[in-house]
Amino acid sequence: MLFFDELPHFSKAVLESLREPMQDAKIRISRVNSKVEYPAKFLFVGAMNPCPCGNLLDSHKECRCSDLEIQKYKNRLSEPFLDRIDLNVVMQNVNVNDCPSFSSKEMHKTVIEAHIFCQKRGQKVFNAHLSDKDMERFCKMDNTSNTILQTAIERFALSFRSIKKIQKVARTIADLSQSGLIKKEHMLEALSYRRR
Fold it and tell me: For the whole model, what pTM was predicted?
């Protein structure tokens, strides 16, 4: 796992250099007389505030940032870099009455069952690492979920990379519910994790 806290505060050069390893799971070093390639499979996790002061989405504190400051802060992350991130989750304020809907033990059991479900259909790699050819075989959608994806492609002008990532996330959500087909609810949830 590679965790970057305060993501926009890393230098642009560092963030942009992550694009290729995040996409291809390889690091390539080129010199005048040689090229070397190293395997680099890792889980990338980034965390950032919604604005420089951190209060933009807070229901109790007032944001002190101008629109220009917020835009400059967000613009530190390029579109090609953000396009390589599978899930985007906005965290909400913690409420005193909040309680988990399931325990870590229950979640662990569900994940193991999803992995077994994948293996039983003949899948040898995690959904995130499926090739385009394997996606045709394993990421089958019902008509409704396919229509929803096509609508999202047109409405949000999704890149080819984004489309594939959404399908893979939807496949994972379907696996968690032991569904052979990607259905409407799986596709809608996958789209909810898309960067806004």
Answer: 0.87
